[in-house]
Amino acid sequence: xxxxxxxxxxxxxxxxxxxxxxxxxxxxxxxxxxxxxxxxxxxxxxxxxxxxxxxxxxxxxxxxxxxxxxxxxxxxxxxxxxxxxxxxxxxxxxxxxxxxxxxxxxxxxxxxxxxxxxxxxxxxxxxxxxxxxxxxxxxxxxxxxxxxxxxxxxxxxxxxxxxxxxxxxxxxxxxxxxxxxxxxxxxxxxxxxxxxxxxxxxxxxxxxxxxxxxxxxxxxxxxxxxxxxxxxxxxxxxxxxxxxxxxxxxxxxxxxxxxxxxxxxxxxxxxxxxxxxxxxxxxxxxxxxxxxxxxxxxxxxxxx
Length: 304
What we know:
Elements (H helix, E strand, L loop, with lengths): L6 E4 L2 E4 L10 H5 L2 E3 L2 E4 L6 E3 L1 H14 L8 H14 L5 E9 L13 E8 L7 H6 L1 E5 L19 H14 L4 E5 L5 E4 L3 E6 L2 E5 L9 H12 L3 E5 L3 H5 L3 E6 L3 E8 L2 E2 L5 H14 L10 E3 L2
Parallel strand pairs: 8-9, 8-15, 12-13
Antiparallel strand pairs: 1-2, 1-7, 3-6, 4-5, 4-6, 5-17, 6-7, 9-10, 11-12, 11-14, 14-15, 15-16
């Protein structure tokens, strides 16, 4: 259950949570013409800090570019708006959702005559896949739904329309008794989860899927790759086949919402409790986001 906060930043102003409304004929509601980001703010010894804020706002702008969407704010203005939203709601740790979308004016498939609206919300949100999942791992299934192809829609845009594909996979998994889904691409190799990047561990080699596999290039994925390298693991970005996935020693998800979540079972394949490689990467990740390791403080934007 989402816990409302006091304010949402909406088109340049703070408005009351319950008053942040759009018209029922908003273009994005009908055609999925929106782009969004997800960030987290963590408590640190020096106060709350947003993890990799600028990179998230740059990606928001990049996603908008795929849809010819002119976001009427600069990256710096968007970063300032995120900080303002967190501060105004007196949040120490929170999830942050910036979104830009074609709004209300005309209703036809062509969106470019419509205004672009931008909103930023923030609220308290714990572990996306459960606290127990972070500690013990989760059960996932290989989805019958395939990840969208770059020949149909741009997978590198974090677009609202793309997540209809993810929602189908997530619903199928949860109805089957699993916490999450792994989506294959149209060529039959691993793409990603419904909203997470995937890593497979074999010995001291850590492999994650590439952009060519259809996975959205993740900002947390990039952080995990750097952390794994710093810990002395060999990191590879490329193709993961189903056979490689099921023969891996350890598998885990990464993402803003998922953070670093171990996978203890894929379909009937049981990996067991959290493995040593995943455990070390997860521990260092939480050190990084909570300001406990000075090596990674460059990733933090402090809320002051």
